[in-house]
Amino acid sequence: MYNTFKQMLLDAVAGFGAVALFLLRIFGQLPSALLRPRLIASQIHNAGALSLVIIMICGLFVGMVLGLQGYDMLERFGSESALGSAAALALVKELGPVVAALLFAGRAGTALASEIGLMRATDQLVAMEIMAVDPFRYVVAPRFIGGVVALPLLTMIFIAIGIFGVQLIGVQQLGVDQGTFWSQMRGSVEVEDVMQGLIKGCVFGVACSLIAVYEGYTAAPTAEGVGRATTRTVVNSAVITLILDYMITAVML
Amino acid sequence: MSVEHSTTSNLVEIRDVYYSVGGRDIFQGLTLDVPRGKITAIMGPSGTGKTTLLRLITGQIRPSRGQVWVDGQDVSRLSRPALYALRQRIGMLFQNGALLTDLSVFENVAFPVREHTKLPEALIRHLVLTKLQAVGLRGAHGLMPHELSGGMARRVALARAMVRDPDLLIYDEPFAGLDPISMGVILRLLRNVNDALGMTSIVVSHDVDEIALVADISYILSAGKVVASGAPKALKEDQSPLVRQFMNGLPDGPVPFHYPAADYYSDLLD
Fold first, then answer.
1. Read out DSSP for B105-135?
2. B245 with B238: CB under 8 angstroms?
3. How far is it, in rounded angstroms, from Cα A121 to Cα B198?
4. pLDDT number for residue B105
5. Which of helix, strand or coil describes residue B250?
6. Which of B88, B96, B98 sits opposite A132 (nearest CB)?
7. Which sequence spans correspond to the domains of chain A?
8. What pLDDT, in 10s, does the model give residues B195-227?
9. Would the CB atoms of A130 and B90 count as touching at under 8 Å?
10. Handedness of CA A166, A167, A173, A174 (dihedral sign)
11. Which of the 8 DSSP states describes residue A154?
């Protein structure tokens, strides 16, 4: 029992070490990767623009549910007029960054991991190495940058659509006063709150993109290996996102 | 010992190399030479480490003992930048082509040129189309890799491998699974490219008859060592049991037909 626990701990530390070294190697290739704006733009498109529909649909429905539940709760205390500020704060500080990160891991993260894993399985990464082209420069770093740029943008879009969803239910359907809704929101949401959401979006962007490219790059070169890498990307991204969320919240509150 | 080595008539020299993976010994004192300007074939039954040898030569893995000299440099001791500089003079044809799936045929062939040179676009186009013409696929330059057949993909990969006129061209199982036409194209190109451009070629294959047509020298590997070497014709007449079994495709011999197992009858009666 003790030995198993010790081994698990050692494996976890070794795993973090490997990911940290991987990140350092990415940083080493960032300057040359940044000189390829077209490659980076196409990766921002892949990770960001292609995730836009799912982010917008989910943002809308999360906002609408928040409108219904928030109204139901606040009505019990006779303070349904606070729906705007309560929902906006929840979306800006928590739900927006976290749900967008989870969706990002499921859509863009898995796509990144499986794409790089398949490149490994079909010898494309080795072929690049033999052609004296570092795959970190051509494959890993641009995809990492694409994810890091895309997630904060997706988070902000998710929040904006979410607030629209709350308004749709709260104001249009349940009859909260339009003026009160928006003025309460403007009065209570500070720049710091938005910054907290944005910082979370950036941190989650780094974490989820790093996990995706790491899992893809280190995938076993088989169909099963690529499948496992994809699964691990989603699971690890979700767990790390929630742990980081707690840590950032604890530091910033 | 220094990383530099006196330049000899051999482009590649493998010296007393030991390599094992997962507790299994792949090479036990392997020594062989690849002469400059010649086509050298590496043959042997499956699992004898032919592809591993290519990975050693290209510096993807390092031997646990011994030296791998490529053009006077010990590959196993080179730093990453020095290894990348050496690899710029090596081209490799992978068994499955290993074309970059997000680039067109043209861009795949242009890839090494774009990455390592700042040539004007017109010259890159000229270079790429010349190489594609050599493999008969100039007309396919706009296709994507998923639109190519296996044989076409390998020919594009060959065009990419030789686009920068490397000193050493390595072929990993170039004939495996090819139709006779593609095989003929690859065979002809192998010889022509080697002679016309003064390259050195290493071909890993177990297609005995095809190798006999093009190779200048062949090595047969078994149990981590070279068991026979020489001109393909001489090997055909070699009388040692393993060489005879391999060259004539006999199902049983020193390389047993059956994977080690318990007694057949007692297994059935159990």
1. HHHHHHHHHHHH----HHHHHHHHHHHHHHT
2. no
3. 33
4. 95
5. coil
6. B88
7. 37-252
8. 888 889 999 987 777 888 888 998 888 877 888
9. yes
10. positive
11. H
d(CA B87, CA B166): 9
Please say whether the beta carbons of B185 and B135 come within 8 A. Answer: yes
Please state, in angstroms and rounded to a whole number, the distance separating the CA atoms of residues B19 and B144: 38
What the block records as the tokens of A13 is 């530390």
Nearest to B203 by CA among B174, B226, B240: B174
Q: Name the region of A175 (left: φ>0; alpha: ψ -120 to 50; beta: rest).
A: left
For chain A, the residue count is 253
pLDDT band at B82 (very low <50, low <70, confident <90, very high): very high
Q: Is pLDDT of B5 > 70? A: no
Query: Does B101 sit within 8 Å of A122, measured CB to CB?
Result: yes
**Which residues of B are less than 8 Å from A133 in CB distance?**
111-112, 115
A230 pLDDT exceeds 90? yes
Widest CA span in chain B: 74
CB–CB contacts below 8 A, A to B: 46
Distance CA B28, CA B65 (A): 9
Q: Determine which of A125, A130, A133 to mutate to test the interface with B (most B C-beta atoms within 10 Å).
A: A130
How distant, in Å, are the alpha carbons of A208, B101, B122, B202 from that of A244?
Answer: 11, 35, 51, 52
Residue A124 has its nearest CB partner, among B60, B95, B101, at B101
**Assembly ipTM:** 0.84
Q: Cβ–Cβ of B112/A119 closer than 8 Å?
A: no
Structural tokens at position B14:
């493998």
CA neighbours closer than 13 Å in the CB half-sphere of residue A138: 20
Q: How confident is the model at residue B7 (pLDDT cuts 50, 70, 90)?
A: low
Exposed/middle/buried for residue A221 (C-beta within 10 Å: 0-12, 13-18, 19+): middle
Residues in A lying within 8 Å of B, measured between beta carbons: 118-119, 122-124, 126-134, 138
Residue B100 to residue A134, Cβ atoms within 8 A: no
